[in-house]
Design brief:
2 copies of one chain form a homodimer.
Chain A lengths: L2 E9 L12 E10 L2 E7 L12 E11 L1 E3 L11 H8 L4 H6 L4 H10 L2 H17 L2 E7 L6 H17 L3 E9 L10 H18 L5 E5 L7 H13 L3 E6 L7 H8 L3 E4 L5 H10 L2 E4 L1 H7 L6 H6 L4 E3 L13 H10 L5 H7 L2 H5 L18 E4 L4 H6 L6 E6 L2 E5 L2
Parallel strand pairs in A: 1-4, 5-6, 6-7, 7-8, 8-9, 9-10, 10-11, 11-12
Antiparallel strand pairs in A: 1-2, 2-3, 4-13, 13-14, 14-15
Chain lengths: 407, 407
Amino acid sequence: MPVLVNIATLATCRSEGGQDDVGVIGDAALVWVGDRVQWVGRVSGLPARFAGETRVDARSRLVVPGLVDCHTHTAFAGWRAHDFVARLRGASYLDIARAGGGIQQTVDATRAASVDDLAARSRAHLWAMAALGVTTVECKSGYGLDVDNELKLLEVYQRLDAEGPLRLVPTCLAAHVVPREYRDNRAAYVRLITDVLLPAVVERRLARYCDVFVERTAFTVAEARTILTRAQVLGLGAKLHADQLSDGGGAALAADIGAVSADHLEQVSAEAIDRLASTGVTAVSLPLATLYLRQEPMPARRLIDAGVPVAVATDFNPGSAPSYHLPLALLLACTVQRMTPDEALKGATLVAARAIGLDHEVGSLEEGKSADFAIIDAADHVEWLYHFRPNACLATYVRGRCVFGGA
Amino acid sequence: MPVLVNIATLATCRSEGGQDDVGVIGDAALVWVGDRVQWVGRVSGLPARFAGETRVDARSRLVVPGLVDCHTHTAFAGWRAHDFVARLRGASYLDIARAGGGIQQTVDATRAASVDDLAARSRAHLWAMAALGVTTVECKSGYGLDVDNELKLLEVYQRLDAEGPLRLVPTCLAAHVVPREYRDNRAAYVRLITDVLLPAVVERRLARYCDVFVERTAFTVAEARTILTRAQVLGLGAKLHADQLSDGGGAALAADIGAVSADHLEQVSAEAIDRLASTGVTAVSLPLATLYLRQEPMPARRLIDAGVPVAVATDFNPGSAPSYHLPLALLLACTVQRMTPDEALKGATLVAARAIGLDHEVGSLEEGKSADFAIIDAADHVEWLYHFRPNACLATYVRGRCVFGGA
């Protein structure tokens, strides 16, 4: 039963309170038993029964809940650095997609890669995330776009979740774009997803969520409704890539069908914000994608002020967000989107856990939750997020075990 | 006489050619003798006389010249995380300065700190920069604002330059803001700089440059001209913080007096761009400051297209740019300012060396120059800058000696 002591500040990110309430405790202690948080509070209030337990020294640093990256496309083959250069020269995301670059190019490379190859690449990314203090990662398929290759990607995630060190939450994103083979028969691809792929995914327990990219270059609201309704009947939760490049009605659909999250929302309308607020959908902000695509960001301030919880994630993928640096996404959420450091931190912990339906298990340091936490080289979370460094994380614990660094 | 082989690509950043000419060599080799580059080229052309020399394996990675961070305020005491939060809540740079926060607060903390304390803090930052591939750092005073404390800061830099691992280029920025004690007698502070401080700095060889912050909250063009003209007579080069928060005539003054660089330039006018182009002043872009201050960036595309060389630096300081992550500044130069990866890389190597008058010595990998280089975990510089990671640098060499990592 280890007792972490000498914690300068501990941000509990507790379940009660709003997005700006990170529940900071100064001079804190944290006790865990096995994989569970047993007690958290000021060291002066540490119960006598823990007095003789093994002490771990946080060296007067900040402790935060393990970060939750609730939107990534971690398994893929091949980079797309030339898309980056094309965009700097003025090509739009739609230009690149229409010219046959973009997602379809990654699909070709990913289809050609083996499970072992994809697992090796993804493993390296996940260990690098763990070193940044990340402990839970939502991972989407979506570069297979046929039954075998979508299942292959989800198998990669299943293997890496079992292997550790991180907790993965797999999402089937077969409806990422319409694959080349179905361009003249979109309905047949939608039927392939609803009638063949999703039943197979559910039978093999390969995903918890189904996601659809609603966009002019991808799927219509009607197609998304068909796919996600079927997914919900089969027992999967629904997520949406919504209103990224145009106001395409994705956020309204998310509210309509009770999706757990609506992600991107750079172009979200005022009406859709009200719908999200009244239905309890979590918005997921992806400021790295906004930066790389040179877009106006999601209006996070307006969403939060309207009562919509806003998670912050990386969108890690080889095209529009080739970085898994979640603390950088948090810095951008502050500087570009004017979220406060408190709101940003809660957006990458408890609110992010809500966006993947895991807030009963992770996202805050409270009794009974998983002992997932990071020790950060800063006096408090504001100093951490403001003084951007390559990596300020000193140690990462998942389920009570140290997986990176040390105290 | 080590020979670095198995280099996937080597960007020479050669002296000839424009800002977008980084002189990429595939399948390259690099030979150095002592602290000097002896030969660089395709490995197939390696002269027979080097065949028997010690080989160092770059493991099929990218090699670039050691990065040059040509604008930093590295020596200071105290952080200013609360300025960061105030700005997110709507306070402007001028608001914070007028309310007694900002630079003056760092001045108070820095005056109270000893040389040893400042050296310890700065040393940690410099080693962290070295780990990112940086080999030369311009370092400004400017948090002392009286004779003794300005000299103290420059002594810190002198000590750390002698100690290594990095090459420091010290700049006297006594004209950063008017200190509290002289607020009602600005002319006396200007005279203190010109008549007492600068002669002492020159006598003790404590700086190569003199810099002035031309801004409504700092110094007028007339005051800057007085200070910099005096500095030039004493043998120092001139630099300017110009047109950051308003178009205050700083760039025009830089052109007028033949400054080596004009830095910031977020608000530079079209006329001033033409003046800079015709006089050969190097512009220094500081996109991290732009991000933290939520400003429109320097119009780097217009400057480059007009023929002005544009360096990219961090502006590392505890207020407006609390990060020494130069590769992040390069990513922002690409995404926010639409510089190409080639232009950004040359902006942090050869062009940055020009901005501190050291382009005869560092900034490119050419015969006779200092053997300063970094081995980067990427196939080429585009992949490096696009796939942002905490740190992609595998090894850093300064004057032919490995100071970080290894090949």
